[in-house]
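ERR on first pass: missing label on line 2. Operator R.T. fixed the label and resubmitted. Corrected input:
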Amino acid sequence: MSDLLKNLSINGRLALVAFVLGVVALFAGSPYVGAGAMVNAKDLSLAMATDADQVDVGTLADWIIQGKSNFRVVDLRTEAAYAEYHIPPAENIPVAGLAQSSLLRNEKVILYAEGGPRAAQAWMLLKAKGFKGVYILRGGLEAWKDHVLFPRIPATPTPAQVVDFARAREVSKYFGGTPQAVAGDSAVTAQAAMPTLAMPTPQAAGAGAPKKKKKEGC
Amino acid sequence: MIAPFFKYGLFGDNLGLVVAFAIGIGFGFFLERAGFGNARKLAAQFYFTDLRVFKVMFTAIVTAMLGVYYLAVFGVLDLSLVYLTPTFLLPQMAGGLILGMGFVVGGYCPGTACVGVATGRIDAMVLFLGIFAGIFGFGEIYPLVSTFYASTPMGQLTLPQVTGLPYGVIVFAVVLMALGGFAGAEWVEKRMAARNVEA
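pass 2 clean. output:
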């Protein structure tokens, strides 16, 4: 056997190596991350404990207004609910389709559903699949409605609250919402209409110029 | 640390250009050392007298395939992030034929023409100008061929997807194909050499 190896030319030896690696490949399985998933419990618990897994509705609203495009917003609800209303840049990926979606592991992904649990489940799923930058929209669409679309001001506001509300009103108008007046005011409408789905045009153009898609290949 | 480094943000656009430059120099160097800066040696491929293009290219394919496969199996490379050129079956077949005809007539493919230019070969420079004339011409007639250009789109295909065979089996099959191809190429070269001596 060793004599045979000694007599083999360099090319022959390289061919032998390639052949052996090829045979091993027969049994080494798929190189893709399959249906299974790996969880780094330490990483995940740390992200939960430090709230590093969540994004505030106010922060998201600011990003959208600033025209940032370095993130993807994912609506986890049903198609019908998505068609009725969704946060402007969101794309609809129901939880069942999450594993086969076009999301990339290195993208910043913000997940939301009606409230909390569904988004949290999806977060866990994507984290286990090795996605790096996955975040939950804190409070989900409910919080988006309460704080962004229909912000409220208490009957006896402190000066700080008045300032906050003035700002919230601008944000709300940008997304086509209706800022709610003081509770108890006669002008309060009981049920504000949901805004239409027209995507607002980013005002601060250039604040975050859209990332150019690179064409790859030779 | 997981590859691809660029997609995981390990370096940005600027350093990416530096990396691309280094890889390009390496690519050109090995093409030249393989003798691919010489149109005669390249064209000999089509007369079956010197199949080094076939051998070098298939060696590169097998080496890269085994490297990528094992890096991904060991979890060092995220294969889902590696870019695959989408398949457009008919236009790519037509493009391949046109490129092949140019290769036979001119004796260079685009990459080796650059290598030939770098070593100062005049035929390579002429072909290099031809490449740009072709690109310009294609740009001019693009509106006429744009429908065909985008026809038969099949997305990002891989052999395991098309054949339904496990990835490892495809790797093994390509290795076998390469080794068989090398043996066959040597045999053909010997036969052609013998015939040319007789002639």
